[in-house]
Amino acid sequence: MNRKICVITGTRAEYGLLRWLIQGIAEAPDLELQIIATGMHLSPEFGLTWREIEKDGYTISRKVEMLTSSDTPVGIAKAMGLGMIGFADALDELRPDLIVVLGDRFEIFAAVAAAMVARIPVAHIHGGEATEGLIDEAIRHSISKMSHLHFVAAEEYRQRVIQLGEAPERVFLVGGLGIDNIKRLTLLDRANLEASLGWSLGEKNLLVTFHPV
For 174-198, what is each residue's pLDDT tens digit? Predict the structure, then answer.
């Protein structure tokens, strides 16, 4: 009997990191892939990105609505409550052997809390990282404490998860999932890159990004 592995995704960005892991589960002969889409994937405001999952050829097992169109503290708390209700029903119907989650968003916190109560093991990716001054860090560490398997991106993060009290033999240093995407990405040559950007590169170039937080 195949083990049912349920991947839970709430944003386009996080799905992009999970994409090749999902592919690996789908192709494994002894695994059955389940996908739960939630959060911004289901929001018209953010482009209904659950369609991208289906466009890639995957079946979405369940959709859990939880957004309240408010990013206030009250709105987020209510969304988490709605999420726990929705995930309780979805996980009861799907009955996965393991859920796989990534990161530190409140949608994922709600999913993992419901799974913990249902005694469903959780595999957490990208735990142990630090986000100073934001609720992301508290949510991420809380998810780690409710999880059973930990797949971290760096040795520093592995040590932090162990410091939280998790068993070292269940904390695996695997690197960042983004590397899988980079290795599979077809890069533009200089001429095509300049054409796509609409301007010519100089002898030396500097790319600056600014995180909205």
Answer: 999 999 888 988 889 999 999 999 9
Q: Tens digits of per-residue pLDDT, 136-178?
A: 899 999 999 999 999 999 999 999 999 999 999 999 999 999 9
What's the token pair of residue 56? Answer: 């890639």
Q: Is residue 180 exposed (0-12), middle (13-18) or buried (19+ Cβ within 10 Å)?
A: middle
Residue 93 to residue 130: CA distance in whole angstroms = 35
Rounded distance between C-alpha atoms, residue 191 and residue 65, angstroms? 44
Q: Which of 104, 120, 111, 53 is nearest to 82 (CA)?
A: 111
The domains of the chain, with CATH numbers, are: 3-197 (3.40.50.2000)
Query: Rounded to whole angstroms, how far apart are CA atoms 41 and 35?
Result: 12
Is the sign of the CA dihedral 11, 14, 17, 20 positive or negative? negative
Tokens 């240093």 found at: 173
39 by Cβ neighbours in 10 Å (0-12 / 13-18 / 19+) ranks as buried
User: What is the CB neighbour count within 10 angstroms for residue 23?
Assistant: 16
Contact call for residues 35 and 19 (beta carbons, < 8 A): no
Q: How many CB atoms lie within 10 A of CB 140?
A: 25
Helix 135-146 and helix 106-117: axis angle, to 10°? 20
